[in-house]
Task: structure prediction
Amino acid sequence: MREPPYATVLKPYGEALTALARTRPEIVCLGADLTRQTETDLFRDAIPERFFNAGMAEANMIGIAAGLARAGHVVFVNTFGVFCTRRCFDQIAMAVAYPRLNVRLVGFMPGLSSPGGPSHQAIEDVALMRALPNMMVLEPADATEIRQAVVALAGHVGPVYMRLKRGESPLIFEESHRLQLDRAQILAGRGHSDVCLIAAGMMLPAALAAARTLEREGLAVAVINAPVIKPLDGATILAAARESRVIISAENHSIIGGLGSAVAEVLAGAGLGVPLHRVGIADVFAESGSREYLFSRYGLDTQAIVRTAWEALARPGPVPCAPSVPASPGTYAPV
Amino acid sequence: MTLLQGLIKLPQHRWRATVDGSTMPSQQYSPVRRLATRIRLNATRMVAIQGFGYLGQALSSAEIFATLFGGGVLRPGHDRFVLSPGHYVIALYAVAAEVGLLDPAELASYGRDGTQLEAIGSERTPLVDLVCGSLGQGLSAAVGFALASQLAGEQRDTFAFLSDGEMEEGQVWEAAMFASHQRRRMGRLIAIIDANNSQVDGAVSSVTTLEPLADKWRAFGWQVLEVDGHDVAALDQALKRRSPDAPLALIARTSCLGRLRCLPTTLDAHFLKLDEPLRAALERELTQELASADA
Result:
């Protein structure tokens, strides 16, 4: 793994999808008036005959995707996560999930990474998509995982919802990292730990930074990256949980129905009495603002994870302070 | 999967034997018209078993299904058929049993526990490329099918059966707009609209104002033809008149009472309760009609 501030990559999804589609004629790309924002301008310019802009009509776009998929295409549907899931839930359920079609719903700008306020913040997209039978839910953490996810998804049978950070993607993992569609990865702390952090997507850098702060205080910390939120790799989570005093999930999403809930289901199902604390959006609608402002105001920053761990373990003394990592232009650091 | 693939294989002559309704005067009792009456009779018997069901949908659409499946319009194994309002699936079962695509004995299982012939179509429904239960979704998928055919360079038509009530859903108009924008690719897309002016709460016109329906589709950039939906010759001619320059909306004006004399005009035919006197009257009128046609 690399160290923060992370180098960033522009349009890793758009590049990977376009490269793949050149060799896979069955891939079709749909969008809803957010072509550049979803990195699919690359696809549009390279393979215009297989790119269709549905305009601001998401429900229809899902139906078109379903028709194309029934005829044998693998369809990548691209828009912001909030519009992709809220506006057309019935269409996704009936036209895509129920018939188990090869449609990949790619929702950009997850959680509070949008400055646009509640209308543009996908805070329950994972909950909605996780509830649908047949639907796989994916949240890669960096450009390396995004590139690998695109290739893996092309070979997967059935519908997938993938939420992606908009704009520059950090490079957290080395090229040797392998994303698998049925695995969570223990990134740090094998064996006994005081606290096990389970994170996905944009919360992974924060979890890694929180782990470093806690380790400096003498705590043993495990970090699990869970890019596949459904089906969640329960075996890996349970193995780590059995060795931990406290579990903390971290997600850029409502604490209801997302990664934290999925972890809770695994723990409760196994009868494991390990305390679970969910770091995420606390069942509220947020507001407009910068990522830095929103992540710290709504408890999605590194410090929130450190504080949650410190209090869950009932450590004496003040909560240690997570040092902020300055990010220069072209680099990325967690809030 | 294309239409009818993997189902009972029919001898080809069954299809070639169908009649081109356009050559017949509309008043003559053509085989397609006879098929429509058989659809009504089958549907009446299917609904009679439980005493309720979507009979009105079969009564209003009988000529449309007869023209599509018995008039040589829809080429089995080649063209695609999307049934958007899944409540109409009763008419599909009824016609399929007549043209050899479905064992007629299966009709008795309509709407019963464990049946393949569910009362509202689903992914388990045989015979169609897609049937939607949630209204307003079928045209979008039909556009997807038509795009796929065009991308593959195939010469196959995509038929989407729609109802007027579901045009209250905005998605229908999203699809209409998209298809018109892509009109060069949509010359083989045909939307057949059963305009029976019926929805759950009563007449569509009492709930909202869809009219002028033809003007709306025209304004959305479609070819529009409007016919008496109980006239098989008119339906047949309309489907053969279309040009390949744009998608076609065929508005079929119909009645949920199917112009049957025995049904009181005050009846709520959207979800028809079929008591014994009504069932007997329907059976009598339809069998008499068939008998006199055969005479």
